[in-house]
Amino acid sequence: MDLQGLQRVSATEWQIPATGDMRVPAVLYADSDLMADMDNKVREQLVNVTRLPGIVRAAYAMPDAHWGYGFPIGGVAAFDPEAGGIVSAGGVGFDISCGVRTLLTGLKRPQFLPVQHATANELSRAIPAGMGRGGRLQLSVEELTDALTGGARWAVDQGYGEAQDLQRIEEEGQILHAKPACVSPRAFARQLNEVGTLGSGNHYLEVQVVAEIHHEKAATALELARDDIVVSIHCGSRGLGHQIGTDYLRDMVRAAPGFGIRLPDRELACAPINSDLGQNYLGAMRAAANCALANRQVLTHLVRHSFRTLLPEAVIRVLYDVSHNICKEETHDVDGVPRRLFVHRKGATRAFGPGHPAVPASLRAVGQPVLIGGSMGTASFVLVGMESGEARAFSSACHGAGRSMSRTQAAKRWQGRQVVAQLAERGILIRSPSMRGVAEEAPEAYKSVERVVDAAEAAGLARKVARLEPLVCIKG
To answer: Domain range for residue 40?
Structure first.
């Protein structure tokens, strides 16, 4: 990135002062190396976000930020409905409520390694993955409507999981005020057989081992110890979420002039939060978020069944489940005054600090878990939110490593079978129906996740708790 015009506030904070039609500054959290590697488009897109009506305090970019649709991926911005604030479909993204769920298994590495290959094969058989691939659940419109309202709670009621799972899920597994009636028939049609599926792209299911503990107190609260086996699921609302994004971006572009909104970029299409269109989008987005929660809950059920087959001593429990593509209504302190804001996190994870009432009571003393995915052959991390994150970025942190090259570039540079063979030599088993997809997701196509989480911690966004290394990865 071109650093001209940026003010360096600290080793991990950079600011672009508000000038011209910028309503607030732009703030980027990254170290010098990450900033140098960041695309100039991130800077351009973040500045465009500062021009949107009703934005509060600043527009933020996380250490893993890269170019996205309208908003940069790794972007955070909050809007005040009482000040004409907007909601933007581009500020949430197409994969609504894409997120990570991490499961505890009660197993140690020596128990797992003898069945590593068998587990990889069983999970590959049991977990539907790949572009457009449907699952075993064939829902009616009425059943899907219930899922869009009930989220993970609906899935548990249908027998896909346990009631205690809900205690460790954001919003206890159900996003309120969802409006399935605001979801198009086309979006419904795309999802009738996709609940309980991974999808493609950077989505995955990984069996991981806890390789290092960085913070003993937090690790103890999260029940993590060295050599523990955990499972992480990364996916979202599949075709339904993508269609909702497509539908409302189109409608918002058309409606913007009537709202008196001048879009600095067509991809930043938005509507006033208090408008009918804004409320309809929020209702549809919440329905998609419930779809994603139901999806990850059904996948958890499939994981339990697979582990029961090979490792009956395993006890699968939810560590936490959190989204990183969503807009949430939250109360935040702004200049000493609590304000009701609509916080957009696109490729950014909510990271409430210790004591926050939204954090499960059993974890409240250490803060909300923040689940950071790696890149198939690299580590993932568990962090917890820090109290300082409230003032730094509305209690937000990074979500992954962040791409350093496009999927097209990666596919030209690597062969999928070569990547699979190289990772197998390192003890990492990959199962995927698409070798091109594996090439696109080659570990070297991403930034260093270690640098990203180190920068997030140094910036006061979230604290490192544990480093997880992959043993099995199911890819779409």
So the answer is: 7-404+446-475
